[in-house]
Design a protein that fits this description.
This protein is an alpha/beta fold. It contains 14 helices and nine strands.
Length: about 425
Amino acid sequence: MKSKSPFKILRSQRGIALLIAMFSITIMLYLAVELAYESAVEYTVTSKAVNRLKAYYLAKSSVELGLLRIHLYRQAISMVGEQLGSSQTMLDPIWNFPFAWPISEIAGDQMGSGDKDLIKDIEETSLIQGRYFLTIESESGKFDINDVASDSKGLSKSIQDQLLKIFTYESENNKEFRDKTQSLDFQEIINNIADYIDENTESRNGSDEGRAYENSELNVMPPNQSLKTMEELNLVAGMTEDLYKLIQKRFTVYGSKGVNINYASKDVLMAIDPDIEEKTINEIISRRSNPDLGGPFVSEQDFNNFLTSIGIKPEVFNSQGLPLLFEQSFNFKVIGVGEFGGVSREITAIVYDVEQVKNQYVSIIEKEEKDDSGNGEEPPPDPDKDPVGGAGGTPAKQKIPAPKGRPTVVYWEEN
């Protein structure tokens, strides 16, 4: 029998070898593509993590810059506040002027050609990468929601009345709001807020505070302590999203035991008396913002005189008897936003002056005690206790001590 040539055997296996080679190449190509993809994904994830970290430190740097500006502002008030008197607000740009990096993005066309060149040189030589934006807001121009359960009966009642007035006005003038809330008892919800905060367990609506939370899906009970954040209001029995939105714009948990007219927003001024015309509110804002018209109000008497001059009765504008403040603000919300590589981070910090708030609260309590005793005589001013621009609008009498160290931060949130 004739045997097969080995060359014929090899030739017959060429097709198999070609298939194996093609399969091997396909496997290697797949592995190469998969490896490249995994590397790209890992690089992207790592890159975003790095960008997020850089954005975070940009935001943190801007907040620290804000705290420095507040510290410098307090030092300036301490050093020259007495000499400036009613013109102390001329120092406000130290803290209230927004700041951004690169500087050219916020300065824009306001700079001259020489300034633009200087700023451009600074930006080009700077080691700062990315962008940040800093804003500082006064918290003294808002109502303090925790005062709804204040030990001061007058302050507590005025804040409760203010809430009721805000809810009622919105219901009367906003059909969509009225349709959503027509089944709600506003006073009952306001009582729930006070019960949530006050120290006792007795409900202002009758019975026990826990009754309002028996059918709650949130499984909470009133902690009987001050709110730490505005968001905590959403845990109060009966609170709805629409009511919360109204409160959020006008209230804070870091107030000054009154409303500072010189820093209050248009929404807050309108809330003091919702029946007042918007034109009047605009006149108040114009007066306090324009030195030629008189500038910021220096006392409650100054403010009342202005109201009278434009045909508004002071007792009607502030019928709830809210403590009105006119001194410089030391309670601030600092918001820093950092951006790098398309990633954005935001940090919010609250600076709170405990001593100033304590003095204001003592002033309110002492005034109530004097009114309750029936003693109509004004006690002699105490320079150690009388707060700057106190509840009655008393002009500044005390020299504010020079601040030491970093401003007191009572709240810090990172997003």
